[in-house]
Amino acid sequence: MPATLAQLLARPELDLRLLTPAGVGALDTPVPWAHSSELADPTPFLSPGQVLLITGTPEEVDPYVERLVSHGIAGLGFGTEVVRAGTPEPLVEACTRHGLPLFEVPYRTPFIAIARFFADRVAADQYARNTWALRASRAISLAALRPDPLAAVLSELARQIDRPVALIGADGALDRIAPSGALRAEAREALRAAADPLLRSRRRAAGSATTDAGPFALQTLGAAGRLRGVLAVGSDGLDQAAQQVVTGVVALAGLALEQSRAADAARSRLRTSVWRALLAGETELAAAVAEPALGPLPEPPVRVTALTGTALAAATDWLETNGGGFFARDGHELVLLESASADAAPAAELAARFGLRGGVSGPAPLTGLRAALGQAEVARGRASADDPVPAFDDVAAAGMLALLQTPDARAVATTALAPLTEADPTLPGTLRMWLDCDGVYDVAAKRLGMHRHTLRARVAEAERLLGRDLSGFAARADLYAALRAAG
Fold this sequence. Notes:
Layout: H1 5-9, E1 17-18, E2 34-36, E3 51-54, H2 61-71, E4 75-79, H3 89-98, E5 102-105, H4 111-143, H5 149-161, E6 165-169, E7 174-178, H6 185-201, E8 206-211, E9 214-223, E10 226-234, H7 240-279, H8 283-294, E11 302-308, H9 312-322, E12 326-330, E13 333-339, H10 345-354, E14 357-360, H11 369-380, H12 392-397, H13 407-423, H14 427-436, H15 441-448, H16 452-466, H17 473-486
């Protein structure tokens, strides 16, 4: 910590003498530096908290002292026998009146000796903090060798910096707090809320949070696209040395989390193998392999959810903590296997959190997973921003014609109907009404408000334009499908 004005005045070799009363000013305030200047207004060149040294008497003493106090100058030293002998009494009175400590510097004490006193203290303080940082970093590195390295590192960091430390996992839940019980529920919730947007961004980033336990600095852990969590460190009053120690812990914590990735990768490969065994119909083998390592398979009947997107890796990490059923990554798909009676909310939450699209199959036995996967993929084709994970049951209930509402079907239908729309834009609507009326001219003509012979002529014109005979069911069904797809 920098030296104080009281410590400066106590140095016998400097032979300084306090001229203002002892209660004037704050003599115990740390002073970072001493600077000399004879300018009428030196404040633009001074920082608050410094000591100013002068040898001449200001022309206007009271305004001069008032400017120094307003700028936050900690003390004023007057060098005697350079310009004049003794310190001017008006200066002593002004400093006493405005609360600025004033001390006298004898001729034999150079100003550089005062500046050096403060500089030596700053250097000693910096050396002490650097030494502390090295020792703290060494203690934290040794903690990383313990059986639970991550918990040991965070606990040691909290002890070294005397600030609370928390780890928010990739799932957004508060994973660890050091020291234990350091944060109340409100502070924990504030940290989770601040970490959530950092995790959702899936990029390396930093942030901050204000809690009832003080301010916290937040830093993501892990690689972009696959964040492993967020480290939250109490940041109130941390100096540069402490921040360097925290930076080292960010690297160590990231390394500790990355070390678990090999085990996660092996676990992921096991899941994929179990899933492929299920697809091959080897349910007994899959259940025997899954139960000791991954837990029991869901009770049939089951539903299959098939998800795709750019953040499958991050979604898989999230499921490791939050997943209730069986899941596996197979190529560019993430599949979830859950009992048919289970809530479908986890799939919707997963899709919303990581920007995925998917579909849910109907109920199926474990021996029918290949067909169920096909249903899930069909449902995924109907996914939209409003419904990112539709159910196959809803798709099937909408009927076959609902499957025509796709960009591919719409493009084909628009091309097929182009001769009609180019000749008469109202002709597709006329044909749609005719087909809706089961091809009965009298009924359709009445609804269209035209004579039945006129309608027959328009249908004949459509046959000519399309080059097709619309008297048969197949041709009518194909035309109706095109009209529905074109919208």
